[in-house]
Amino acid sequence: MEEMQIKELKNILSTPKKIVIIPHKNPDGDAIGSSLGLYHYLKHYQHEVHIIAPNEYPEFLKWMPGEDDILKYEYQADACNSIIQKAELVFTLDFNSLSRIDEVQNALKDFQGDYVMIDHHQAPEGYARFMYSNTAMSSTCEMIYNFIDFLGDTDKITSEIATCLYTGIMTDTGSFRFPSTTSSTHRIVANLIDKGAENANIHNAIFDTNSIDKLHLLGCALKNLVALPEYHTVYITLSREELQQYNYKKGDTEGFVNYGLSLDGIKFAVIFIESVQEDLIKISLRSKGDFSVNEFSRAHFNGGGHTNAAGGRSELSLEETTKKFEEILKDYKSQLQ
């Protein structure tokens, strides 16, 4: 973020404002963690702050301090619309295209205030007056820490803020193992622990709360795994019927795609999930090295993200989608060697 923008934004925030924080649809640990971390920070200065999530999110994110205050647009549209109409400032976190917030985008059509974008994904749109966009960052939570630092306020980081930001950094870095995890990331994490983030408890809350149904669903996913050794690629499928058989709940398939990427010699892993609520296939893509799943997904599956982690979607059937995927792979064989 440029110095002039920091000074201008600091001046705007010097008096209480009506502020809305919006994460992307289907928010993950980084989206919820960054929203709550910023929420607690802004509340310290007596701003009137609301977080509006486009829709529901997994149960394993609902223990974070302040989570009870998050409004969900899919259930509380009228209340959210009223809040947005009165807002003076809107922070958009962990996304860079308003298409990522579905119906909330329509609620913002008459918004006359300023947008602040804080995000680490590629190809940002230019809707925000204040933009902090950096694809080299491990997570939006790391960027929120930096944002607080830009404003000279790291001494204002409480245990609640530290807990939320630690959660997002941990989840978006794959527990600190992805290449985006830098020495700066570790220094920030150390500071957050010093500020009160209980790292072991946070890890347990996110990763050690499995149900029997979820483990059975994982077993089903692994049984469905297809290996394409000539492309150093694997993919997993989960049909709507399989999800329903194992009482699928939002977030249950989180991390499943990484099991495929853990196989020796595999460079590219994908999971195709037939949505329970929508008539589409949700796709998660992961890679190792310099193979860009962001470019792959943008080119073929209406998605995007990062070089080694991206999402996408298909409106074809599950069978047609995997057939299309296998056909497309032929054009990438040299890149996947």
Question: How would you describe this structure to a colleague?
Answer:
This protein is of the alpha/beta class and 337 residues long. It folds into two domains: 205 residues, inorganic pyrophosphatase (n-terminal core), CATH 3.90.1640; 121 residues, Roll (Diaminopimelate Epimerase, Chain A, domain 1). The chain is 39% helix and 18% strand. The chain contains 13 helices and twelve strands. The strands form two sheets. It has a six-stranded parallel beta sheet with strand order 3-2-1-4-5-6, sandwiched between helices. It has a six-stranded mixed beta sheet with strand order 7-8-9-10-12-11, with helices on both faces. The longest helix is centred in the first third of the chain and has 16 residues.
**CATH architectural label of the largest domain:** Alpha-Beta Complex
What's the structural domain tally?
Answer: 2
Amount of helix: 25-40%
Helical run tally: 13
Query: Per CATH, what is the topology of the largest domain?
Result: inorganic pyrophosphatase (n-terminal core)
Structural category is alpha/beta
How many strands in all? 12
What is the spatial order of strands in the main beta sheet? 3-2-1-4-5-6
Low-confidence stretches: none
User: Mean of residue pLDDT?
Assistant: 96
